[in-house]
Amino acid sequence: MAATIKDIARATGLSVATVSKFLNGGTVREQNRELLQKAVRELDYHINEYARALKTNRSRTVGFLVPKFGDVFASELASEAVTKLKEQQYSLFVCESHNSMEGEREAIDFLASKQVDGIMATLIGTDGWYYKRIFDRYGIPVVLFDRKLDFDVCDTVVIDNAGAAYQAVNRLIDAGHRDIAVIRGHQGHYTADQRYEGYERAMKDAGIPVKEELVLAVDYADTNMYDHIKCLFTMKQRPTAIFSVNYFTTISTIMALNELDISVPQEISLFGFDNYHLSQIVKPRLWLVEQPLARMAEEGTRLLLDRIGSKGQEEATFHTVNIQANILQGDSIRQISGAGA
Amino acid sequence: MAATIKDIARATGLSVATVSKFLNGGTVREQNRELLQKAVRELDYHINEYARALKTNRSRTVGFLVPKFGDVFASELASEAVTKLKEQQYSLFVCESHNSMEGEREAIDFLASKQVDGIMATLIGTDGWYYKRIFDRYGIPVVLFDRKLDFDVCDTVVIDNAGAAYQAVNRLIDAGHRDIAVIRGHQGHYTADQRYEGYERAMKDAGIPVKEELVLAVDYADTNMYDHIKCLFTMKQRPTAIFSVNYFTTISTIMALNELDISVPQEISLFGFDNYHLSQIVKPRLWLVEQPLARMAEEGTRLLLDRIGSKGQEEATFHTVNIQANILQGDSIRQISGAGA
DNA sequence: TGGCAAAAGCTAAACGATTAGCTTTTATGA
DNA sequence: TCATAAAAGCTAATCGTTTAGCTTTTGCCA
Questions:
Q1: Structure confidence by residue, pLDDT tens digits, B178-199
Q2: In degrees rounded to 5, what are phi and psi of residue B166?
Q3: How far away is chain A from the Cα of B207, in angstroms, using its nearest Cα?
Q4: Which nucleotides of C are covered by protein (CB under 7 A)?
Q5: Labelling B208: which of A117, B43, B53, B190 has CA 20 to 30 A away?
Q6: For every residue of A199-229, which 3-state class applies, written as one string?
Q7: Which are the contacts of B304, defined by CB distance < 8 A and separation ≥ 6?
Q8: Distance (Å) of CA B276 to CA A232, B272, B279, B292
Q9: Cβ neighbours of B230 in A, within 8 Å
Q10: Is the dihedral of CA B198, B199, B203, B206 positive or negative?
C-alpha cells in the first residue's frame, strides 16, 4: 500500500496540515524540512493526485485535441506542449477527433468528464457559434491552434499563413518564374485557404494573372491526388515552378515529380510547406515554409495557463497570438534568365 | 457548480447509496430508475472520476508509452487501443519516451504518479532484468507490443516478424530473384533483427548465399540513409530486388529509387514493410507486409484488462500472443524468366 | 526579562464518491 | 391474511488531500 500524507505525519511527528503545507511549497522549520524530506524519500511517498483533485477541484491536467494520433503537425505541437506543461506540473490528455465535428464534440465531452482544467485544440471547422455552444457547456478554457473562428470564443495561436505563402511565392517570382502552379489543398480548410490567398496576392502584386489550370485543389483524403498532380506536368505548357501548401501535398508532389522523371530544380522549381523531417530526407534540399511549432506550443501553453489561473474573472476579451513562420532556404529553385528588376 | 450525487439524491428523494448503486448498474425499482434518469438528465450530472478513483483506488485509466507522438506505428496502435478501451470505460494517457531508456523510466514514473491501472508500451530495449526493476517498483501490469524481453516480465503481443519476412523474401525468390538486397534497419532493434533473420532463413532455405554487400544496415536516425541506399544501385552488379524491413526504410528506398530513375518493377522489384497509407500513395502498388494493428491493439487491451481484473492474484505466468501479419499484393515484383521449379 | 508580531504548527471539516452492514419494503405461497 | 425470503434502500464511515481558523513557538527589541 502506498504511503499517504498521514504516514509522513506519523513518521515525522508533525501534523498532516504541516506535511501538506510542506508538499505544496510552504515554509517549515529547517529541522522539519529535513525530517520531511527524509520521510518522503524513505517511504517513497507520492501524492495522490486524485485526492488532491477532488479537494481542490483542479486536476492539473490539460486536454489536447488532435485530428488523429500520428498527424504530424498536431503531434509535434502536442509533443512540445507536453514539455512546457510539465514544467508547470501539468499533464496532458491527448485525444483524437477523427477529423469530424462530431468527433470533436465527443472528445470535448470526454475531456470534460476527465475534468481537465483547459483544452488545446486543432479544430476542423470555423463556425464560432457552433464551437461557442460546445465550449460554454463546460466552461473550460480553450486555446486553438492555427485556425480562426468567425468570431472569437477562445484564445488562438496562428502563424501568418497568408504572409508566409506570399513570401514563398514572391521568392519564386523573384527568381523569374511566372507559370507558378499551386497545390492548394482542400478548399474550406482554413490554413490551406489562407495560404492560397497568399499565393493569389503575391501573383496579383506582381501583375501575373492566376491561370486556373495551374491551381490544383487536392483533398487530404484524395487517393487520386497522385494522378492529379501528374496531370499538371503533362500539360502542353508546363509550369516552371510549384508552390505546395502543406506537408501532405508537398510529399505527394515530390513523389509524382520523381516518378515522372522531372528533375528539381532543373526542370521545375519547388517551394514546399512544413518541414518535419522533409529537409533532411529529400534531395535536393527544399525551400520550405516551416512552422515554429515549439514557439506555437509555448505561446499556447502560456495563454491557457493564464486563462486557467484567472478563472472566474473577467473573460470578455480573447487573445490571438500571431507568429511568424520561418523560411528554410534550399536548392530547389532555379533562377530563370531575364528575371528580376 | 457541477451536480453531485447528493444533488441527485435530493432531487429524487433517494439516498446517495441508492444513487451510487444505480450509477454503477445496480438494480433499483422501476419508478426510481425513471426518477434517477430524469434527474441525471436534468441536472446534467457527470460522475466525479477523481472522487471515484480516490475511493476505489482504481483510476480506470491506462498509460500508453510511445517513442514519439507522431510515430506512425505506435500512434496507430494507440489509436486502436483508445477505441477498445473506451468500450470498457477506460481512458488512455499517451506519453512519449523520446526513444531512450531514460525517457521510458521517466514516463513510467509519470504514469505511476497518475495511478494508471495498467500500461501499454513499445519499448526500445530487450533487457528483461532492467525492465523488471522498473515495472516491479510500482506493481502496475504492463503489456508490451512487438518486442520480446530476454525473459518474461510482462504480457506481450508480437507479430511473427521473422515469418512474415520469410514469406516476403520467398515471394521474391519464387519470382526468380537471387540478388536480393535487404535494407535491414538498425542492428539491435528487435523487429528489424527479427525480420532480417527471416530474410537470412529464406535465402538459406533456397540455397542462395547472402552477399554481404547487399545487406544495408541503415539506422533510424541516419540522415545519410538516402545516400547509403543510392550506393546499392551504383554497384557493378545491381540487385534485382529489394526487401525493406520497415516503414522508414521503405519510404527512403522509394525516394532513392525515384531520384536515381530506377523504375519499379521493370528494373528492380521491391517488397516493403508496414502499410499505413503507403499502399494508397505509392505507385506502382507495392507488395507489403502489413501489421494488423487493430488486432494487436485488441489483444493487448484484452491481456491488460484481464491482468488488471485479476490484480493481486497469482501472476507467475505471462502470456505472449503471436499474430500473423498480412501480405498485401501489389505490382512491384517482376517475374524473372527462367524462374520457379 | 517581558512583550509582541510573525512564523510555524495544529485541529477538524470538507471534497464526492463507494460500500459494509443494517432496516424496510415487496412479492410469494400456504 | 400472515410469515418469510428476497429485493431495495438507508446510515455512516471512509478514501487522501486541502485549508480556514485557531494555538503555540520563535525571534526580536526595548
A1: 999 999 888 878 888 999 999 9
A2: -60, -50
A3: 35
A4: 7-21
A5: B190
A6: HHHHHHHCCCCCCHHHEECCCCCCCCHHHHH
A7: B62, B118, B119, B120, B141, B143, B155
A8: 27, 12, 7, 10
A9: none
A10: positive
- Give a three-class secondary structure readout of B138-192: HCCCEEEECCCCCCCCCEEEEECHHHHHHHHHHHHHHCCCCCEEEECCCCCCHHH
Under a CB-based contact definition with an 8 Å cutoff, are residues A75 and A66 in contact?
yes
Give the model's pLDDT for residue B340: 42
Residues of chain B contacting A251 with CB distance shorter than 8 Å: 281
* Distance, C-alpha A195 to centroid of its chain: 16
Pairs from A201-208 (Cβ < 8 Å, separation ≥ 24):
A201/A162, A201/A166, A202/A165, A202/A166, A202/A167, A202/A169, A202/A170, A202/A173, A203/A169, A203/A173, A206/A170, A206/A173, A208/A173, A208/A178, A208/A180
Mean pLDDT in residue range B124-132: 91
CA distance A215 to A89: 47
- Residues of B with a Cβ under 8 Å from any A Cβ are 46-51, 53-54, 59, 68-72, 75-76, 78-79, 82, 91, 93-96, 110, 112-115, 223, 226, 251-252, 254-255, 258-259, 261, 280-283
pLDDT class for A334, splitting at 50, 70, 90?
Answer: very high
pLDDT number for residue B1: 66
The cell numbers describing B39, all together, are: 434527474
What average pLDDT does the segment B279-295 reach? 83
Quick one: closest CA in A to B67, which residue? A79
User: Structure pTM?
Assistant: 0.86
Cell of A118: 483547459
Indicate the pairing of strand B326-328 with strand B320-323.
unpaired
Residues of B in contact with A70 (CB under 8 A): 70-72, 75-76, 79
Taking CA atoms, B236 is separated from B214, B239, B263, in Å, by 12, 10, 18
Average pLDDT of the segment spanning B162-172: 96
Angle at B144 between CA B142 and CA B146, to 5 degrees: 175
CATH of B59-159+293-322, one of 3.40.50.2300, 3.40.190.10, 3.30.70.660, 3.50.50.60: 3.40.50.2300
Measured between CA atoms, the residue of chain B closest to residue A225 is: B281
Cβ A60 vs Cβ A49: under 8 Å: yes
* Rounded distance in angstroms from the CA atom of residue A49 to the C1' atom of nucleotide C14: 17
> What average pLDDT does range B216-238 have in this prediction?
74
DSSP calls for A98-134: TTSHHHHHHHHHHHHHTT-SEEEE--S---HHHHHHH
d(CA A141, CA A62): 10
How many other CB atoms sit within 10 Å of the CB of residue B259? 20
* A31-CA/C16-C1' distance, Å: 37
- Cell numbers at residue B114, please? 497518475
Give the closest residue to D26 (Cα–C1′).
A29
Select the more confidently predicted residue: B231 or B205. B205
Q: Position B37: which residue type?
A: Q
Q: Cell for B50?
A: 477523481
Domain boundaries, chain A: 5-47, 60-159+293-323, 161-291
* pLDDT tens readout for residues A127-147: 999 999 999 888 899 999 998
Distance from CA of B28 to the nearest CA of A (A): 25
Neighbours of B15 (CB within 10 A): 12
If you classify domain A161-291 with CATH, what class do you get?
Answer: alpha beta
CA distance A51 to A151: 39
Please tell me the CATH code under which domain A60-159+293-323 is placed: 3.40.50.2300
- pLDDT tier for residue A222 given thresholds of 50, 70 and 90: low
